[in-house]
Amino acid sequence: MSFHLDTPSKVSIVEVGPRDGLQNEKTPLTVQDKVTLIDALSNTGLRRIEAGSFVSPKWVPQMANSDAVLTSIARQQGISYSALTPNMRGLTDALAAKADEVAVFGAASESFSQKNINCSIEQSIERFIPVIDAAKAASVPVRAYISCVLGCPYEGEVSPQAVLDVSKTLLSLGCYEVSLGDTIGVGTPKKTSALLSLLLSQLPANKLALHMHDTYGQALANVLIGLQHGIASFDASVAGLGGCPYAKGASGNLASEDLLYMLENMDIDTGIDLQKLIKVGHHISVKLDRQNGAKAGRALLA
């Protein structure tokens, strides 16, 4: 019996390890450590790398010196180096550091929005408008992240309609893609399918990406549901960098190596060299003195 899945033939991976991954790691890294990591990732075939975050170092100490990181990396043609920019000051600093792309981040949960960025969902979107407008004026693409699309640490269930409303608003403001974040990793295939069915009834698949966390081991199962719904953009973190800050001791980000191993074995093209990525994951895990969070990385380390 032949096994056939109707999935995209090509997928784009956004490597978030240097930002979303490192910001949740306890071991501090130097600017040179971060530059070395990003330069190594640039040599794997990745085309989208999240290189830093222009937020207050008081709140996210690991992201201090993102300007120095972005100005020191060996940029390669055809690779987009992006940065998170929560406000106008962040955007100004990111543009000065020559970020190729910027990202804003909101939430689908009111409680999470208040706890994470100290304002309501509506207020957060109001804050994004000048950032998005200024980025567009500088011809810099803007991506959007939405947290807690499948569950919230404070509210529990999150309404798919709330996710749709925020997604539509951010796309209408000029974001080219919305990354749907399962921030605490509680999503399951059934929930993911229900969410995507609603979103795709009103939005095109090429405007959506999935950012799945692996807290309960569900990330790849949810990615598969995304693929079956025609989603072709996924966020992942080399070596599974970044724990989940809301679930003690839990793994957080989906490891890029595990995602790539699955996609390769489904004959889905990513343009990325798995063995090279595995070496990068191994080196950064040693540097951080942590276990490599990528199962494929551990199994295939040559």
TrEMBL record:
PROSITE patterns attached to this UniProt entry: HMG_COA_LYASE, PYR_CT
Keywords for this protein: Lyase, Metal-binding
InterPro entries found in the cross-reference section: Aldolase_TIM, HMG_CoA_lyase_AS, HMGL, PYR_CT
Tagged with keyword Metal-binding: yes
Pathway linked to the protein: Metabolic intermediate metabolism; (S)-3-hydroxy-3-methylglutaryl-CoA degradation; acetoacetate from (S)-3-hydroxy-3-methylglutaryl-CoA: step 1/1
EC number assigned by the record: 4.1.3.4
GO molecular function list: lyase activity
Enzyme class: lyase
Pfam families: HMGL-like (PF00682)
Catalytic activity: (3S)-3-hydroxy-3-methylglutaryl-CoA = acetoacetate + acetyl-CoA
Residues of the Pyruvate carboxyltransferase domain: 11-278
Record-linked PANTHER family: HYDROXYMETHYLGLUTARYL-COA LYASE (PTHR42738:SF7)
Family classification: Belongs to the HMG-CoA lyase family.
Name the record gives this protein: hydroxymethylglutaryl-CoA lyase
Organism of origin: Glaciecola siphonariae
